[in-house]
Amino acid sequence: MSIAFLICLVALFVLAGLGAPIGYSLLISAIVYLAMMGADLSLAAEQLIQSIYDGYILLAVPLFIIAANIMNAGTVSDRLLAFCVALVGRFRGGLGHVNIVTSLIFAGMSGSAVADAAGPGKIIIGMMTKDGRYSRSYAAGITAASATIGPIIPPSIPMVMYALISDQSIGYLFLAGIVPGFLMALMLMVMNYFMAARHHIVQEAPVPLRELPRLTFRAIPVLLMPVILLGGIYGGATTPTEAASIAALYALILAGLVYRALKAKELYRVFVDSAKQAATVGIVIGCALIFNYIVASERIPVLLQNWLSGMDVSPIVFLLAINVMLLVLGCLLDATTIILVVLPLFIPTCKALGIDLIHFGVVAVVNCMLGLVTPPYGILLFVLNAVTGISLREIITGVLPFLFALLVALGILIFVPDLSLFLPRYFGYLG
To answer: Structural domain tally of the chain?
Structure first.
């Protein structure tokens, strides 16, 4: 490991610590490294452009962002919530269960935790806190926790990023996220049930069963979106990127023509917001790929692999150690940076230890999603604070019990790989 690389790392952490955007921090630290090594500084631009233009898969990211934003702008969330209230609102902690199930279904349309929290999450918090039925802390906490399911159930933007750096099939990664997503929802619902009983929360008046067919019929166009999306991918009709474009078009037709809930002015705002979000993600991805080039040049993954091989570490111990480290990093860094910069360091070692890369990817992405609700950096905490006005202290207090439930789910996924690999193997994965 060269002095130039150590100074590059110092520059990265100093800039990030001073509050500079992580994409720019990565870019500047990479330029510092190239300058110290006497390399052509245009190499940074060359790596950025080459990596992005070769990454056809990256087109799926802005398309999924657009689809999620269109869904939030229309009345999709309202119809979805009405269906979920009729389905699970009758049980103890009913609106908490509605919150979780809504996130589970919305996950099949957006692939984004932020979109889930800012859209249906904001609405359900209002429903839960109305008339003081749930405290603001409880409502915000369960909303933040359930929003982490969004990037696990396909489609998933973080899974697309992991596929980029690991050279694994997006289709199999999407399949591998389905069971873990349901497991996370189940753990949250169990915790919600016991928390509701502990706080003596009154059960909601059940929606008459005769109303369920009507509410289901109203929600069918919404529920069809993940079916169309995943059916196209696994039926071999579309690539994940093509499926993302179909999802964006379907969302536009649904919100604009079927529900007539999206006017031209709102659509313009959706496109502008989506462009800003996609550009932000694109800068981080591009600059992370430059940094990964430097890491590869320094042979860091090989050195790490040789060091761990000399220690004779077992696969399960390695997985546990990596997950503890990712949980700590999740308190300080955003998920995109961890996936694009940190995970590539460990992929060669995973191969050497015989750890399945699909399983590793799912566990790592779930871990990164826990970082979204972990103080002090947890982005979902800030999103909910911004859209609801609930203080960060209340949100953090409310999310801690549900964070524990998610940690239990993560532990199960680490020790039982078949939960992640069952569906990919059923559809032909040989790992």
So the answer is: 1
